[in-house]
Structures are given as structure tokens and as C-alpha cells.
Amino acid sequence: MAPELKEQEKETIQRAEKAITDKAALAELLAGILAKNDEIREPSFKALLHISETHPEVLYPHWEYFAGLLVSKNTYLKYEAIYLIARLTIADTSRKFERIFETYYELLDDKSVIPASHAALNSGKIARAKPHLRTRITDRLLRIDDTHHEPERRELIKSYAIEAFDEYFEGADDEDKKMILEFVRGQVASSSPKTRKKAKAFLKTWDQSKSRTGDK
């Protein structure tokens, strides 16, 4: 890692740790993710992301603030909200995600491929935090072909869905596992190189039928 990147990472952690106990510092970060200036917005987002991963309970009281960004017209604000909301589900004792489930998964059909891809990717964390939603989440990810995106973009989004499946496949119920495996097997011949690679890696790990027959 380059020295300047190490320094940036150190600064991010320092800002995050300060904001955990300093309300003014936290307010600055919350305002910062709305900034048009990338030099303000990106460090603010990274610090909040760090907090969401280490102390999600600190950001949970601001759930509605982040949830509101999911319907923003700004692609990057949606992107930020997708990541923060997914990480806060571990602290979601009031089942707030259940109330915005449809809003979140409508992003799979967003006009931009960016929110769609990252909503799919972060589904793995949500499924791990909320086991009772796994079947609903699986159903949404399996229906990426139903979205409006151009075929090549749908194929790319599927690579992110496969990454999500990898996060919670072990804990999925048997019926979901069957459908996920069938879906992933179908991506081995995807037009997307990334998706083909993810599919092969997933099947190498999880496809027991291949392991029993000795297939590689």
C-alpha cells in the first residue's frame, strides 16, 4: 500500500473513532456525505462506513437519514446509503429494514447499473444479519433478468449477486440452495468475464455434486 494511502486510511479511522463519542464530529460526517465536493464527501463516507462496521449502534439512530438517501436522484448518495444500510441491519432491533425492503430491492431496477450492482452485492450482509429474509432476498437476486437493464449490464449485475450468495449460501435453506446453484451454473457461460469467473469460483466451493463426481 502506498504511503499516502496508508495515511488516508489512518485519517479515516481517526475521524471515525472521534465521531463515535463526539456528536459534533459525527454531525460533520453526516453532513459531509451530501457534499458535492468529492474531497469532503468521500472521506466522510469512508469514516461513516468504518463506524457502521465497528460500532453500528452509533449510526442506527440515523437510520431514517440513510434510508432517505435510497430514493435520492443522486446515484452516489444511493450508493452510500446502500452500503451503510446493509451494515446497520446487524443493529436493526426494530426491524426497520423490513419496512424499506421493497425500496431497497427496487434499486436492482435502478436507472443506473451502479446502485443495482451494489444493492445486489450488499444483499449478502443483509441476509446474514436477517436470516428470516433470506428467501425473499434470494428471490429478488434470482430475478435480475426481469430488470430493465441491457443484457450486458444484467450479466454484470449477476456477478455481484453471486458474491452475495457466497456470503450466506451455507445458511440458506435447502430449496434456496437448489435454486441458487441452478442460477450460478447458468452463469458459467455468461457473456460477462467477471460473472463467469465468480460462477466458477462459487461452484468450486459450494457445488457438492461436482465434488462427488470429481469434476473440476
Task: Describe this protein's structure.
The chain has about 220 residues and is mainly alpha-helical. Helices cover about 70% and strands about 0% of the residues. It has 2 domains: about 1-55; about 65-215, Leucine-rich Repeat Variant, CATH 1.25.10. The protein has helices spanning about 5-20, 25-30, 40-55, 55-60, 65-70, 75-90, 95-105, 115-120, 125-130, 135-140, 150-170, 175-185, 195-205, 210-215. The radius of gyration is 18 Å and the shape is globular. The two termini are about 35 Å apart.
Strand content bin: under 5%
Shape type: globular
CATH class annotation of the largest domain? Mainly Alpha
For the record, the count of structural domains works out to 2
**Would you list the SSEs in sequence order as H and E?**
HHHHHHHHHHHHHH
CATH topological fold name of the largest domain: Leucine-rich Repeat Variant
List the helices and strands and how they pair.
Elements: H1 3-21, H2 23-32, H3 38-54, H4 56-59, H5 63-69, H6 75-88, H7 96-105, H8 113-121, H9 123-129, H10 134-142, H11 151-168, H12 174-185, H13 193-206, H14 208-213
Helix pairs in contact: 1-2, 1-3, 2-3, 3-6, 5-6, 6-8, 8-11, 9-11, 10-11, 11-13
